[in-house]
From TrEMBL:
NCBIfam families: DTMP_kinase (TIGR00041). SUPFAM superfamilies: P-loop containing nucleoside triphosphate hydrolases (SSF52540). Pathway: Pyrimidine metabolism; dTTP biosynthesis. Residues 8-185 form the Thymidylate kinase-like domain. Gene3D superfamilies: P-loop containing nucleotide triphosphate hydrolases (3.40.50.300). GO terms for biological process: dTDP biosynthetic process; dTTP biosynthetic process; dUDP biosynthetic process. This is Thymidylate kinase. Keywords: ATP-binding, Kinase, Nucleotide biosynthesis, Nucleotide-binding, Transferase. PANTHER family: THYMIDYLATE KINASE. InterPro entries: P-loop_NTPase, Thymidylate_kin-like_dom, Thymidylate_kin_CS, Thymidylate_kinase. It comes from Mycena indigotica. One of its GO terms (molecular function) is nucleoside diphosphate kinase activity. Its EC number is 2.7.4.9.
Length: 221
């Protein structure tokens, strides 16, 4: 039995980092092998360039930074797929959906933004943390990085809705992240516990036709 691939997405300051750490701990305590990834991974050479950009310490064209974000995910794609095949559940704090939503929110074409990530390992479940930009702004540290601006966050939220519409309820769920940490953690665990140990043997590919003609990820936009 392969591991489950769970992605947690959301607006900035929606509580993702806290909740993925909590999910990792719960999975470990239940006896499930688990590995946590965070994107961007700022420890790699590409990740360090992204980190400098996000902290407004350097400037890059929108197209260039988008491709760097994608390359950062591809750096770890083989490792993710290998872990899944070995039976380790993988939890990601952000993934390709963030890359597409944030770049498209800046005005780049949606399909152009999606193309570099086509073929990445596809998550079995994406949990989207929904929170209003006003509520996010009220949380500590808001505005410290480049993308933490209310107008941009509103557009990103709209684009996440577009991406969510391509998935059925088994592949993409939305969680109200404006509630207490305990309430959010309980709902996240409900979805994760229902998935682990019940995934199909094959790791699907993101935004490409799946086996036997089943299109799991629509190219309708």
């Amino acid at each position: 039995m392969r591991g489950a691939f769970i992605v947690v997405e959301g607006l900035d300051r929606s509580g993702k980092t806290t909740q993925v750490a909590n999910l990792q701990a719960k999975l470990e305590s239940s006896g499930t092998p688990v590995k946590l990834f965070k994107f961007p991974d700022r420890t790699t050479a590409i990740g360090q360039m992204i980190d400098s950009y996000l902290r407004s310490q350097s400037e890059l064209d929108d197209q260039a930074i988008h491709l760097l974000f994608s390359a950062n995910r591809w750096e770890l794609a083989t490792s993710i797929e290998s872990l899944l095949e070995q039976g380790t559940t993988v939890v990601c704090d952000r993934y390709a959906f963030s890359g597409v939503a944030f770049s498209a929110a800046k005005g780049l074409p949606l399909e152009w933004c999606r193309a570099p990530d086509s073929g990445l390992p596809a998550p079995d479940l994406t949990i989207f943390f929904d929170i209003s930009p006003e509520a996010a702004r009220a949380r500590g540290g808001y505005g410290e990085e480049r993308y933490e601006k209310e107008q941009l966050q509103r557009r990103v939220r709209e684009l996440f809705d577009v991406l969510a519409s391509e998935f059925d309820d088994e592949r993409w769920v939305t969680v109200d992240a404006g509630r207490s940490k305990e309430e959010v953690a309980g709902e996240v665990w409900k979805y994760a516990a229902a998935l682990v140990g019940k995934v199909s043997p094959q790791v699907d590919k993101l935004w490409v036709p799946a086996l036997q003609g089943r299109i799991m990820y629509s190219m309708k936009l």
